[in-house]
Amino acid sequence: MSTGVSVDDEVASTFQKFKLQQEPYKLRYFIYQIKDKKTIVIEKQGDRNKTYDDFVGELPENDCRYGLIDIEFETDDGRPTSKLVFISWNPDTASVRPKMLYSGSKEALKSALVGVGIHINATDHSELDYESAILPVVKKFA
Amino acid sequence: MYCGDETGAYVGDVGSHTARFGYGGEDCPKVVLPSAVYRHYGGTVDYNNDDEGSRVKKRKAAKYSAPVSLLNAPPDDCFTENEVGFIPIYNSMNSNAKSSPDVDTEALAALWECSYQSLAVRDRKKHTVGPRHDPNDTIEGPIDHPLLASIDPHRGEKHHASILEMFFESLSAPAAYLAPSATLSAFSFGRPTALVVDVGHSSARVTPVMDGYTLKFGSVQSQRGGDWLARVQEKVLACNDLWGDAPCPCPDGVMPRYMLRNKDDNLLKLKILKESSFHDMSVHQVMYEMMTGSHVLPLEEEESSLPAPFSDNDSDDSNAVEDEEVDEDEPMYVLPDGTRLDLGLTKTGKDLRRLPELFFSESLPTFLQTDTNTNSDENITTQPLHQLVQHSLSQILDADIRKELISNIILTGSSSLFTGMDKRLSSELSRILPSMYKNKVISSKNSVENRYSAWIGGSILSSLGSFQQMWLSRREYDECGSFLGLQKFHS
């Protein structure tokens, strides 16, 4: 069941370039927002020199967002690698309406972001913690 | 509120105890009715005008109305010689009445119709500003609100198809949508993937929801819902064996409120009523009030060292316990008919204070075990809540999904409002599930959100601008019929 929210064209086109790290989309992350309860658009983007913590800092406290971030890490055998992670930020402190909207529209966005294998659902800051929550999941898929 | 919302949706969530209705976009349902209708026999035949273009069907001779409350006996014209026209929509699994698995769609249509009356759904002039020139001039026409209903995936395709048919044929809706109530509850908590534990009236249901889709093979039900607990309490109050030397408080059964108000009614009427489901529902009302009274102790987080309530022990012991452990605050409860229950004195009285404990007790006391239900459906069990969750999870073979479900357990439903239930469920699950899974039980502190979470989910869904393309319109239904129409909801 979905909510019928559509994905903006800009999202799909910038995603392709982001995947290939082409200029001017040599970025670290995107933050997506649902505008006017109808379309998913890009709210913010972060430069390559920004970190995961910058990404977390840009997420609002009491409202929901979607995020796509390129995480660089070392696998267990020591290879440096990077993976794209889709994060659904749905804090418990948000009101019911945005929570409903964002959870129902997640599928639409996921299908537009082709090839992103790692999906994380975060409902508070402890679930966004890099060391304890994100990294183990990412490493499993590496 | 957005202006021009004459075509806002109408959302209905019909459960086994209450039915919730209201306009989409609102925060809580404006109309909450008991899930039953009165059927009036005889009287005048009621036909609707066959206007050009109006598709309202002629009503049959039996007229229906909705009981607003169960405090008074049904009106006189509901009685025939040997039965009363009180039709519950969903027969409780526990009831002794012959329960047919098929829901009476005529009664269901009547319930929806009755809810329209309070909100003036059919009145097309309700949004006109200014005085009406003729107060009797309200246009009763076909509704122009699309209808959204919540459904229970356990009931099967045939039932859902008949609801869809009812919407388009009897209620002449312009568009409709059916959504599983577990998905709506999960979305209203902001989680597209969750294990929804809905402790309702007729049963406790555990339904895994993955990205908005309910998984059928993981969906399990248990009899232990609010209705079951109310019956247990009723049995305890009426059972002589449990009270030791003293007589039980209600030797003739618990007296519901309508009996007090209608004492002067003729005896035959009361006799008919006593054997009907109206009586059952009224008694439950009294029992629900008792279960939510202040004498009920909050559930402890860890299973206490005390034995389960009402478990057998030597009758000698119960007398010995009496002297030492009389509760300090002398709790007592007064039933509507004046019967005073002193709950601090006997063991059974003290156990009544720990009633919600029965949701988690693994073995049932003997006086309950004899009352096994005759329903042989494998999916319906009498497992305690934590085991039910475990059973549901065991049907899910993918470890990653299981992990995600365990960390997103939503506890909802009116019978989950007992204090401490979420913490207790969490600690019981930590005990029986493998320790690598960290469980998280989420429940709303706000009782409105718990009781009406599926309705609220439906309300918000129907009010989304982007959702308007998802409705199954009248035209589509006319082309493909109800079964194919159902497929649209799964895409």
UniProtKB/TrEMBL annotation, chain A:
Residues 2-138 form the ADF-H domain. Belongs to the actin-binding proteins ADF family. CDD domains: ADF_cofilin_like. It comes from Cyclotella cryptica. It comes from the Eukaryota. Pfam families: Cofilin_ADF. GO terms for molecular function: actin binding. The keyword DNA-binding does not apply. Keywords: Actin-binding. This is ADF-H domain-containing protein.
From TrEMBL, chain B:
Residues 125-144, 299-328 are annotated as: Disordered. It catalyses: ATP + H2O = ADP + phosphate + H(+). Residues 313-328 have a biased composition (Acidic residues). One of its GO terms (molecular function) is ATP binding. It holds the Pfam family Actin. It comes from the Eukaryota. Keywords: ATP-binding, Hydrolase, Nucleotide-binding. InterPro entries: Actin (IPR004000), ATPase_NBD (IPR043129). Belongs to the actin family. This is Actin.
